[in-house]
């Protein structure tokens, strides 16, 4: 069935995200208080979180960005909708009038790990029919994030995966999964269906190691040392995990770039573009979004990752409130030409 919100006429390849979107409220505190304690936050900063950064990056690459997840009705949902409008993102998913979209309070004390307090909203309360109307067209890229795999909306993702089938060669669109750090919480049935769908997997190294552990991939991290050995380990990780997944695999390692493995092929290192970082939030959404946009433009996976590396190096050098700011397409391509 055709979703009329996507329009009728000549099709422009789009990146469609099934990911959840909410509002993040970042609070900088001297330290996270113990139970019954008290802390003063310095200048709370609301921003859009979840899969929004992926779609924002897609739009900045000049590719049509569409959100197929659920938006609610209320203060936070209106903030999200306005951000969509300001950044060229189209919402094609379901709307709920009976509850607002959710939010997360993020406590940042300068420690390596932040503290999160989540209030789930409409985005997490989908069902088996959440994505049943979605019909990706030729050269579209469908993005699935790990943040959609742990609540009621996951049943809708599972239904979409079953419709997508287990043979990528029969699809006229690409399927990309960004598992995020929540992968360890995804149930076995959901993970099995994800693996069987054989999408393109885009992970950071921690996510890739978590996935390898859950799938029993033969990985030995004893070779990783401060003085070297990372390249050998990354080849071992990508070869072992890629062979287990039987699917394309991208593993990001910050300024060092990313390693890419195609099914049955060798693992290739795509170098990064070292730069002075000023961000405190992850740039993974920018990298995944740019990669998806380049796939929609018709680039092969290694080339898409190369452009994503360039865009991400610019993004982390110009953060706003600690959030990396993805550049426009022309700026990323200028860096590549240099």
Give a brief rundown of this model:
Residues 14-319 form the Carbohydrate kinase PfkB domain. Keywords: Kinase, Transferase. The chain has helices at residues 52-60, 75-86, 154-164, 188-197, 205-215, 230-245, 284-296, 301-315, 329-337, and strands spanning 14-17, 21-28, 42-50, 64-67, 89-91, 103-108, 115-119, 141-145, 174-178, 200-204, 249-252, 258-261, 267-270.
H and E string: EEEHEHEEEEHEHEHHEEEHHH
Low-confidence stretches: 1-5
The main sheet comes to: 9 strands, mixed
Tell me, what's the shape?
Answer: globular
What's the arrangement of strands in the largest beta sheet? 5-4-1-8-9-10-11-12-13
- Roughly what percent helix? 25-40%
Structural domain tally: 1
Strand-pairing-aware structural class: alpha/beta
- Average pLDDT, to the nearest integer? 90
CATH class: Alpha Beta
What amount of the residues lies in strands?
A: 15-25%
Under CATH, the topology can be stated as UDP-N-acetylmuramoyl-L-alanine:D-glutamate ligase
- CATH superfamily assignment? Ribokinase
Integer-rounded radius of gyration:
19 Å
